[in-house]
Amino acid sequence: MMLKQDHDRAGEICGELRAWRIRSRLRQDAIAKCLGVAQSQISRWESGRELPRPHNIEAIRRLIRGPEIDPLLALRHFVIHSSQHLLLLDDQLAILARSLPFQASPNPLDRFGWVLDPERNPPFAPVQRRYRELLRDPGGVVGLTITLPFRHEGARWTASIGKTIHSIAGVRVCLCELSFGPAGPGDADIRVEEVRLDPTGETRHSMTLWRHPADA
């Protein structure tokens, strides 16, 4: 049973989370990704329909009361201490911060990082170009889902990349959730799905396919 003072504290942190998110111009899905919960859970917390558990409260506190007032530095601080598979990227795909799984030695980037280098993996080049175009001028695009097949040591693999685009303190950055796994039977093409918000707030999806040279 939650004590009244704990109940009040949980309610306060939810209000602070919403205010910080709006002030930082971050969407609920980005906060959800950082905290390892569903976007609908963030919505329920912010609306007061549910209260976070103690471990969630501590995670929220670390995010919104980071060591710096600057929201970009606070987001970087949170990514660094996150157990999720997260990267914070700038508009050139340079890594600004990496979460704990990508700080370990060895880590997935040690083995597969070459896949995200267009010089070492030319099929990634059109994906990189599109990313840079969107960071310069998002045009309503708020997120990308990228499926990138590749071969490694004779086996077929897929990089799954989920990106959300944010403008924080005048700087556009991308919060990236990255994973690698064996390719499935339908993972022959390079796929880039763009999620766009139109002026009415409706979500639109568009898909671009590139035939992988190895399968062409």
SS-derived structural category: alpha+beta
Q: How many strands, what sense, and barrel or not for the largest sheet?
A: 7 strands, antiparallel
Approximately how much beta-strand content do the residues carry? 25-35%
Spans of at least 5 consecutive residues with low confidence: 1-5
Amino- and carboxy-terminal Cα gap: 61 Å
- Mean pLDDT, as a whole number? 84
Order of adjacent strands in the largest pleated sheet: 2-1-5-4-3-6-7
- Name the overall outline: globular
Helix fraction by DSSP (H/I, runs of at least 4): 25-40%
Short note summarizing the structure:
This protein has 216 residues and is α+β, with helices and mostly antiparallel strands. Helix content is 37%, strand content 30%.
Write the layout of secondary structure elements.
Layout: H1 4-24, H2 28-35, H3 39-47, H4 54-64, H5 71-80, E1 86-89, E2 95-98, H6 100-103, H7 108-112, H8 125-136, E3 141-152, E4 155-168, E5 171-182, E6 189-197, E7 203-211
Antiparallel strand pairs: 1-2, 1-5, 3-4, 3-6, 4-5, 6-7
Structure commentary:
There is one protein chain. The chain has 216 residues and is α+β, with helices and mostly antiparallel strands. The chain folds into two domains: 4-65, lambda repressor-like DNA-binding domains (434 Repressor (Amino-terminal Domain)); 95-215, no CATH class. It has eight helices and seven strands. It has a seven-stranded antiparallel β-sheet, sandwiched between helices. A hairpin with a 2-residue loop joins strand 4 (155-168) and strand 5 (171-182). Helix 1 runs parallel beside helix 4 and helix 2 crosses helix 3 (39-47). The protein is globular, with a radius of gyration of 19 Å. The chain starts with a helix and ends in a 5-residue tail after the last strand. The model is unreliable at 1-5 (pLDDT under 50).
